[in-house]
Each structure stands twice: as C-alpha cells, then as structure tokens.
C-alpha cells in the first residue's frame, strides 16, 4: 500500500519534472518526488545507532536527489554537474561499506575522467539548454511510470523478504556476515598489521610488550579489515588475474578504437531529408537550413 | 541483524538509481544526457554489488565493481568518440534526428503517425535593448580631458 502510493507519487513528480512544456513551473514536481523517497525510506529499519543511520541516509539522499535532478534538468551542463553529485553520494555509500579503494577509484575515474570528458563534449553544443530537443521528452509519463513501477516491485520484494523475518539464506548457511569475531585468515591479519597501524615504528617496537598490546587490540576491533585494500588486491591479482588482463586488453582496445574513430577524415552528411513534423532541424548543413533557422 | 538492514538500504538505493537512469534513458532526447543516464544506471548496479559483497563478507563484490568501472571508462571513451563524430557531421545531438540516418540507396522511411511530436520552441520573451554601447566622444572634449 505504501509502496503503491510511493510509486504513484514518484511517477507523478518525475512526470512533472521532466521537460515537456517550457511554460510551466517544474519545481513543484520536487514535492511528490521527495515524498516518494521518504515513503520508500520509511520501510527501512533503523540502522544501528542514529549516527550510522544518518550517515547512510545522507549519502543515499544525496545520490537519489541529485540523480533525479540530473535526469530531469533541462540544461545539459547542470545534468553533468548533478551526475557528479550522484557519483559523490555513491562513493560515500561505498566508503561507508568499508571499501576504501573503490570509493576513491569511483571518484577519480567518474568525476575525474569520465565527467570531465562529458563536460568537454557538452561545451560543443549549447550547454544552457536552449536546444529544442532539450525542452522535450519522449513520453515522460509512460517512462516515469515504468521506472517507478520497477522501484515499486523491487521494494515490495525486499519488504516481503525482510518482513518475513527470514534473512537471506546465503548469510545463514555458508557465508559469514562481516564481524570481527569471525574474521578468518591470520595471514591476512599479519599482512595488514603495518598498514592498519600506519607506522613502521610499531614493527620496531614490537619487542616491547606494552607497545604491542594496543596494536593487537586495534586490529581485533577493526570490523572492516576483511574488506581492506590489501585483500582486494590479493583477490584481484590471484583469483581474478585473467580477468584483470582481459580488462587491460579491453581498455587498450577502447583507446585504440576511440583514436581511430576520431582520427578519420570526416565526411559530412549530405542531404538528409528531415521527416515532416520534426522541427529540430540540424544546423549548419545546407544554406536552406541556415535560412530557415534565421527565419524562425 | 544490522547487516541485513544495511543490505536492504543499499539494495533500495541501488534500485532507485537504476530506475532513475532508466527513466532518463527512455525519455531524454539529448545523446550525451542519455549516456549520463546509463552511467547513473551503472552506479545503481555498483551499489547493489557493494551491498551484497559487504553482506557476504568477501571482496568479490568489490572486484566486480572495479570491473564495472573499467568497462564504464572504456565505454565512455568509445561512445564519446562516436558522439563527437556524429556532432561534427550533423551539428546536433538529437536522437530523433539520428533515428532517420540512412544509406544512399535506401529510400527514406515514412514516419508512423504520431511518433514524433513537434518539439516546443524556446519561449520568446521581450528583450531589453543592449547596453554597454561604446560612447561617442566629441573631439573637443579630448582637449580638456586628455585621458579620454
């Protein structure tokens, strides 16, 4: 019931936010969207202490709201910037789950490389949203209904599974949840000791029993030691070594492909008859188009 | 079971990001905005994998997310090169225009009725006259104000 209301509210708000009629106050669509996010978030159980819940909720809200803004804004420049905010929220959630390396890699790759390339490309066109195709959408009501229906089905499944009191079976039987007591592999602990304590002087003063005891306690109560960067690297370069090589080949192929695509001499398109009813004419191809742009 | 609650949180956020990216991909007409919507969908998938990896207590989810990042970088490089080529040849990023690209020997396909609605033009607001015109200085003024 709550999920249905959230789906309808969210679809309505997104439909109102999407650009399809320029003379309209689009910002009123934020009210149903925020209400839908709140209704969906109300299904969650509280997460540990209030600080835990506040941190995770802030990152989730940041990702979701900036994703809504990125999808629905009229200006492509702001779309790219809001996408950067989405990536920052996602990176915060990844960091919250204990994956430090991935959080940093996400920020560096997405915001540092991909987003800058997008911004560079956006500067070619009109980044202020003056184009006619930025002011319209393909069937905004149907697409927002479909998307929110997906969210509703998924959240209903999650609520059923969680409400039955039945935890997902993978943790109950073979896998262990991430706790400090069940942390296996003394090899891993031994390898992480200089990393986690952060000082090589700990190893030198290791003979001193007083100095060694706090270090051991610190290691024992670090709950995220399993997802540490060292374990990620070990898993990456032992179990997934072939996949890493394939990904390296993929990146090389993408680099070569982009170079080949860009480096070819350009053959301009000629005489594409634009279909009737399509008002966004391509600009600057033929003198007729230029004259028509000047008239309109 | 705090971990199940955390997993629930991550799965819900990931589903929301995926659905928002899908809405953007389905409804927007700008080519670059569609690629950004795809990247938002990839973010949702990454969050789901991270949540499951945290729940299971191993690093497999993180490895998958690392591969997703690598594939996204490769995809962005090739896709943006293609977008740049399309833009240089057509001076537009409209997918409705690109949908009617054809070869020379193929006759233009007739449009099904109602597929393309006319894009609303930019509203024309009344404009004030431009300010900041360069002032015309009379020649005799420069005699007693030589800094002009």
How would you describe this structure to a colleague?
The complex is a heterodimer of chains A (296) and B (148). By secondary structure, chain A is mainly α. Among the domains of chain A are: 2-168, NADH-ubiquinone/plastoquinone oxidoreductase chain 6, subunit NuoJ (Four Helix Bundle (Hemerythrin (Met), subunit A), Up-down Bundle), CATH 1.20.120; 223-257, no CATH class. Helices cover 65% and strands 0% of the residues of chain A. Chain A is built from 13 helices and no strands. Chain A has helices spanning 2-17, 30-41, 50-72, 76-96, 100-122, 140-163, 169-172, 186-197, 201-204, 209-220, 229-238, 241-263, 287-295. In chain A, α1 packs antiparallel against α6 (140-163), α3 packs antiparallel against α4 and α4 (76-96) runs antiparallel to α5 (100-122). The radius of gyration of chain A is 26 Å and the shape is flat. Chain B is an all-alpha fold and 148 residues long. Chain B has a domain at 2-98: Orthogonal Bundle (Helix Hairpins), CATH 1.10.287. In chain B, 61% of the residues lie in helices and 0% in strands. Chain B is built from 5 helices and no strands. Chain B has helices spanning 2-27, 31-56, 60-90, 95-98, 141-144. The longest helix of chain B is centred in the middle third of the chain and has 31 residues, at 60-90. The termini of chain B are far apart. The relative contact order of chain B is 0.09. The mean pLDDT of chain B is 83. Chains A and B meet through α2, α3, α4, α5 and α6 of A and α1, α2, α3 and α4 of B.
């Amino acid at each position: 019931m709550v999920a249905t209301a959230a789906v309808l509210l969210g679809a309505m708000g997104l439909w109102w936010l999407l650009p399809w009629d320029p003379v309209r106050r689009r910002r009123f669509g934020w009210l149903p969207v925020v209400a839908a996010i709140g209704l969906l978030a109300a299904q969650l159980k509280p997460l540990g202490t209030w600080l835990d819940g506040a941190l995770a909720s802030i990152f989730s809200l940041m990702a979701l709201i900036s994703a809504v803004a990125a999808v629905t804004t009229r200006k492509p420049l702001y779309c790219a910037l809001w996408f950067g905010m989405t990536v920052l929220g996602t990176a915060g959630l990844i960091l919250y789950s204990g994956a430090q390396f991935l959080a940093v890699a996400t920020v560096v790759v997405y915001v540092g490389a991909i987003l800058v390339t997008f911004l560079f490309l956006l500067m070619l066109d009109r980044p202020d949203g003056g184009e006619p195709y930025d002011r319209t959408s393909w069937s905004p009501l149907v697409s927002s209904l479909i998307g929110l229906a997906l969210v509703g089905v998924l959240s209903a499944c999650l609520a059923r599974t969680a409400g039955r009191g039945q935890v997902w079976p993978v943790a109950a039987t073979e896998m262990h949840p991430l706790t400090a007591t069940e942390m296996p592999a003394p090899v891993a602990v031994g390898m992480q000791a200089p990393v986690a304590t952060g000082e090589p002087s700990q190893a030198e003063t290791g003979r001193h029993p007083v100095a060694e005891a706090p270090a051991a306690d610190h290691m024992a109560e670090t709950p995220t030691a399993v997802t540490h960067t060292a374990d990620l690297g070990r898993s990456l370069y032992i179990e997934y070594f072939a996949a890493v090589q394939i990904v390296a080949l993929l990146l090389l192929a993408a680099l070569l492909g982009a170079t080949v695509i860009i480096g070819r001499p350009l053959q301009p398109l000629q005489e594409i008859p634009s279909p009737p009813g399509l008002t966004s004419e391509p600009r600057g191809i033929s003198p007729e188009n230029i004259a028509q742009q000047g008239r309109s | 079971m705090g971990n199940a609650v955390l997993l629930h949180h991550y799965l819900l956020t990931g589903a929301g990001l995926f659905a928002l990216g899908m809405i953007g991909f389905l409804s927007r007409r700008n080519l670059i905005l569609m690629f950004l919507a795809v990247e938002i969908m990839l973010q949702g998938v990454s969050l789901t994998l991270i949540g499951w990896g945290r729940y299971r207590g191993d690093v497999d989810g993180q490895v998958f997310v690392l591969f997703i990042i690598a594939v996204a970088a490769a995809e962005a490089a090739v896709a943006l090169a293609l977008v740049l080529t399309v833009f240089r040849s057509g001076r537009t990023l409209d997918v409705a225009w690109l949908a009617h690209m054809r070869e020379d020997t193929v006759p233009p396909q007739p449009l099904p009725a109602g597929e393309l609605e006319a894009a609303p033009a930019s509203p024309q607001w009344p404009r004030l006259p431009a300010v900041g015109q360069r002032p015309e200085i009379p020649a005799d003024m420069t005699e007693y104000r030589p800094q002009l």
